[in-house]
Specification:
Layout lengths: L12 H14 L6 H22 L6 H29 L7
Length: about 100
């Protein structure tokens, strides 16, 4: 008796799922643009509050919020466009 498989091309469901899992995990997960932008907004607000409390600069809250929202909006639009551009260059997988 032998344990040799006479047909090496036979379908094996376990092998195929392992190959697919390896292909999916090979691509590193990237941070979402929105998460990065809102994290930077929070950091900027914290830095501005610290600077204002130290008395280095006097800040007008309205202008600070307008500037942060303009910057965050621009960063979200640019990040979304870059993400879409990168996604368009990737090969099609047939998934929706």
């Amino acid at each position: 008796m032998s344990n040799v498989d006479p047909s090496p091309d036979s379908y094996n469901a376990e092998t195929q799922t392992a190959d697919q899992a390896g292909a999916d995990s090979a691509r590193p997960a990237s941070a979402r643009v929105g998460t990065v932008v809102w994290g930077l907004v929070i950091l900027a607000l914290a830095a501005l509050i610290i600077i204002a409390q130290l008395g280095i600069v006097t800040l007008n809250g309205t202008y600070v919020l307008i500037g942060l929202m303009l910057g965050a909006g621009a960063a979200l639009v640019v990040g979304g466009l870059l993400s879409a551009r990168k996604r368009d260059n990737e090969p099609r997988t047939g998934k929706s």
